[in-house]
C-alpha cells in the first residue's frame, strides 16, 4: 500500500483544519426556517470542494426540503464501489448562553475544535472529503476504488429528502457498501466500529384548553390547564423505574446475542465514572436489571425534550395558557417498528387526555432500529485500517442514537453500512460547546485512506 | 351635589381618552428588566399629571424595585380621607403574535380601547386621576374630601416595594378608607363592588438532572429527564377532579356565609354561556360539588403557567435538557395563610422528587386572601354612587384574583378598601388583546366623582 496519500494528509493537516473551520462558520441549522439560505450555502461549499478535488458529476439535488449533494468517481474497473454518506446540516445551537465561545465561530482549545457541527457531522464529513483528496492527489487523479458520495442537509430534521431519493433512485446510488461517519468512539484512542443503532419516533403533543390565554385568578378552578394535562399524560407514559407503559410497546424488543453482551462487559466502562464525568447527575435512571450500555444501546426509551407554551420569562405571570405542547420522542431497538410504535403510542395517549382538553398528536420523524452483521469483508477491512492507525484492536459497539439512512441503505440498496465514527463520548453532541478532538480528525482521515486502499487492493 | 364636575368630565371625554392612550404607549412591563426605563417613564408621566391637576406633595419614591408615586391634598378640614390606590405597571405582552394590533399601540375598535394595561390597571388609574381633575377644576381648586394617592409599579411582580412602604410609613398613608380600582364588573352595565379576593403563592420549581444538555439517543435510558420529573410532580399535586393533594392544604379554608352564597345564585350567570363565550373549552374543570363562582371565588386552586427549558422551537431537537422548570401558583381563600401554604407545598413537593433529580423551590410573590365587610359607610356610599351612574342596583361579588395591597391596608393601616372596578369579564386581562370598554372608562370617572362628593357631603 502506498504511503504517499498518508504523507499528503499529514503535510496538509493545517489547511484541512482551516477549511473545516470555514464550513463550521456556516450556520446550516436545518430545523430553523431563518437559516434556509445558510443551509444552501453549506451545500454549495461542499459541492465546490468535491469538484475541486476531482470528483465527477457533482450535483446539488433539490428536494422538498434542503438539497442533497451528490458526486461520484467510477473509473476503478473491477473494484468495489463505496457509497459515502454524511450530513452538512447541524442542530440548533440553543441555549446560546451556555456556549463558552460562539457556536458558529470555531475556536481551538486543548486540541479540540469547538463549534456547532464540529463532530456532528461536519468534521466527519470533511474526513471523507480530505481522505478522497489525499488519494486523488497522490494517485495521479485516480482512486483505489469506485466512490459515490451523497451528503444530506436534513439529518437533524428527519431526513425526508434523502429517504425519498434512496427509495426512488436506487440506481444512482448503486454500491457494494456504504461508509457512514456519524458515530463515536467508545473511548479516546480506542478504534470503534458501530454495528447497531436505535430507531426513533419523534412526536409533539399539543394540548388545547381555553380559546385564549386566561388570568389564573379569574379562571383558576374552572378553566382546563394544558400544562397540567400534559404533565398528567407524560407521568403515565413511563413508570418510576423507566419502564414504558404503552401497551404492546415491548412486544418486538429483541435481546442482543449472548456473545455481544459478553463483549460489552469487557469494554472499558465504569458506571460511576460515567455518572460523574459524562452525566453529572446524582443518580442514573432507567430500567432495573440492565447495565447502562444495555439501557442506552439495546433498550428503548421515551424522553421529553421541551414544553413550549405559557410564560417562560423571568419572574411570574399568572396565565392559564390556551395551549401548551410537549416534544416527546421514543428510541427504538430491533425489531420494533416505528409506524407501529407511533400507533400504539397515539392510541394510549388518547386514553390519557384529561377532561376539557383537546389533544393533537404530531409525528416529526421516524427511523428504523438496525443491527449490522460483522462478518462481511468491508466491516473487516475497516476494522484492520483503524487498528493500523490507532495501534489497538477495534471494538464493536452499538449506539443509542439513530441514523435513519442506514436502515434505508439496507432496505432499498441492499448494502451493509460500515459506521466508522471518530467522535468522543464527551463531544457534547446536540448540546452547548460541541467539539471535535483534532487528533481524531487527522486519524479519521488516515483511517479512511487505509480503509479505501485495503478495499481497493482486496476487491 | 354639584353637577359641574360631571359636566366637566363629559366635556373632556376625548382629551381624557387621548391622555390614557399616551400612558398606554409606555411599555411599563415590570417583570422584564429591559423595560426598567419604561417603568420609570410611566411613573414620571403619572406624577406630572397629578401635579398639573392640583395634587400636592407629589413624590416619586424610590424602592428596592420600581418607584411609588405619591401625592395628597389634605385641606378639606373635618372631612374623611380617602387613600386612592392603583398601579402603573403592566403584564408582559407575550404571546405577541396573538395580538390583533400591537400591545403598546392603543387602538379603538367597537367602543373598546385595545392595549396591554388598558383595563389592568392604567385605564382604571386614569379614572381616579380624571375624577380628581374634574373635582379640582369645578371646585375652585378644592376637593370635597381629603385625598392621598399611592400608585405602584410592581403590582404584576408581587408589590414588594409598596408592601414595605405600607408597613414602615403608615403615618404617610393615614386615611379613613382606601379606594382600589383594579377589579371588574360582573356583567356589562351591572354596577359591581368587589368584597373578596383570593390570595396567592407563586412559585418556580427548577429540576436539575445532568450537568449539561445531553443527546437523547446517547443518554436516553440512563440520564434523568427533568421534564419527566416535573410532569411526575405536577401530576401529583392535584387529582383528576381538581382537588389539591397537598396534606393540610384545605385545613383553614372557610365557607362563604349562606347569605353570600344565596346572593351569588341570583347573579346573571349561566355556566354554559361562560364555558362557550369566556373560556371556550370543551368542558369546564374544577372541584365537583361547587358552582363556577364558588370554584373561582371561594375555593383555592393550583395552576401551572409555563415550563421553561429544553427545546421549544419548531420541529424536533433530541435533547435531554440539564434542567427545566415549572412556574406553579396557588390561589388561596380565607383563612388560608400564604406562608403556611408555601411550607406545606414545599414539604409535599420534596417528597415527590424522582430519583436523580435535584429540585430547587423558589417563591416569587405572596398575597393574603381577604373578605371586606359590606356594612361600612364608604362601601354604602360607593354602592349608591354607582347605582346613580348605571341606573341599576349595585351587586356584591368576589374576585378570584389577588390584590395583595388590600390585605396590607387592612393589616397595617386598619382601613377597609372599597373595590370599585370597571373592567368587564371579557377584557382579556393578562392575555393578548387586553381591552377596556370606553363607556366604562367614562362611567368610572362619573362614579368616582359622585362617590367622593357623597363621602364629602356625609362626612
Automatic annotation (TrEMBL), chains A, B:
GO molecular function: metal ion binding; peptidase activity
SUPFAM superfamilies per record: Zn-dependent exopeptidases
Swiss-Prot/TrEMBL keywords: Hydrolase, Metal-binding, Protease
Pfam family, one: Peptidase_M20
Record domain Peptidase M20 dimerisation: where: 196-355
Matching InterPro entries: Cyt/Met_Dipeptidase, Peptidase_M20, Peptidase_M20_dimer
Residues annotated as transmembrane: none
GO terms (BP aspect): proteolysis
Name by which UniProt lists this protein: Dipeptidase
Biological source species: Candidatus Korobacter versatilis
Lineage per the UniProt record: Bacteria, Pseudomonadati, Acidobacteriota, Terriglobia, Terriglobales
Amino acid at each position: 500500500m502506498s504511503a504517499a496519500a498518508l504523507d499528503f494528509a499529514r503535510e496538509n493537516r493545517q489547511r484541512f483544519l482551516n477549511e473545516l473551520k470555514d464550513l463550521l462558520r456556516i450556520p446550516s441549522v436545518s430545523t430553523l426556517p431563518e437559516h434556509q439560505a445558510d443551509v444552501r450555502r453549506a451545500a454549495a461549499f461542499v459541492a465546490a470542494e468535491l469538484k475541486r478535488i476531482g470528483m465527477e458529476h457533482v450535483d446539488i439535488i433539490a428536494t422538498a426540503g434542503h438539497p442533497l449533494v451528490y458526486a461520484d468517481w467510477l473509473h476503478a474497473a473491477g473494484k468495489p464501489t463505496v457509497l459515502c454518506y454524511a450530513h452538512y446540516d447541524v442542530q440548533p445551537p440553543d441555549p446560546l448562553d451556555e456556549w463558552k465561545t460562539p457556536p458558529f465561530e470555531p475556536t481551538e482549545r486543548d486540541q479540540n475544535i469547538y463549534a456547532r457541527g464540529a463532530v456532528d457531522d461536519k468534521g466527519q464529513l470533511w474526513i471523507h472529503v480530505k481522505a478522497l483528496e489525499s488519494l486523488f492527489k497522490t494517485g495521479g487523479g485516480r482512486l483505489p476504488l469506485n466512490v459515490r458520495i451523497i451528503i444530506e442537509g436534513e439529518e437533524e430534521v428527519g431526513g425526508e429528502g434523502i429517504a425519498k431519493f434512496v427509495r426512488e433512485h436506487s440506481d444512482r446510488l448503486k454500491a457494494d457498501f456504504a461508509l457512514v461517519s456519524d458515530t463515536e468512539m467508545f473511548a479516546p484512542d480506542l478504534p470503534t466500529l458501530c454495528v447497531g443503532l436505535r430507531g426513533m419516533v419523534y412526536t409533539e403533543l399539543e394540548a388545547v384548553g381555553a380559546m385564549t390565554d386566561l388570568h389564573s385568578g379569574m379562571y383558576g378552578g374552572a378553566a382546563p390547564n394544558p400544562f397540567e394535562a400534559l404533565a398528567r399524560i407524560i407521568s403515565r407514559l413511563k413508570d418510576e423505574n423507566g419502564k414504558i407503559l404503552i401497551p404492546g410497546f415491548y412486544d418486538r424488543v429483541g435481546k442482543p446475542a449472548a456473545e455481544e453482551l459478553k463483549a460489552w462487559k469487557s469494554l472499558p466502562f465504569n458506571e460511576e465514572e460515567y455518572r460523574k464525568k459524562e452525566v453529572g447527575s446524582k443518580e442514573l435512571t432507567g430500567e432495573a436489571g440492565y447495565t447502562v450500555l444495555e439501557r442506552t444501546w439495546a433498550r428503548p426509551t421515551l424522553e421529553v425534550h421541551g414544553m413550549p407554551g405559557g410564560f417562560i420569562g423571568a419572574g411570574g405571570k399568572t396565565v392559564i395558557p390556551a395551549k401548551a405542547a410537549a416534544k416527546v420522542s421514543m428510541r427504538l431497538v430491533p425489531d420494533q417498528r416505528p409506524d407501529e410504535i407511533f400507533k400504539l403510542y397515539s392510541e394510549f395517549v388518547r386514553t390519557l387526555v384529561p377532561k376539557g382538553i383537546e389533544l393533537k398528536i404530531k409525528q416529526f420523524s421516524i427511523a428504523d432500529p438496525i443491527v449490522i452483521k460483522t462478518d462481511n469483508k468491508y466491516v473487516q477491512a475497516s476494522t484492520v485500517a483503524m487498528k493500523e492507525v490507532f495501534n489497538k484492536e477495534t471494538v464493536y459497539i452499538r449506539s443509542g442514537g439513530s441514523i435513519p439512512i442506514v436502515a434505508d441503505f439496507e432496505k432499498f440498496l441492499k448494502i451493509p453500512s460500515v459506521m466508522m465514527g471518530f467522535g468522543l463520548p464527551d463531544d457534547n453532541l446536540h448540546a452547548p460547546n460541541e467539539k471535535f478532538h483534532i487528533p481524531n480528525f487527522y486519524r479519521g482521515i488516515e483511517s479512511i485512506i487505509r480503509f479505501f486502499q485495503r478495499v481497493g487492493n482486496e476487491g
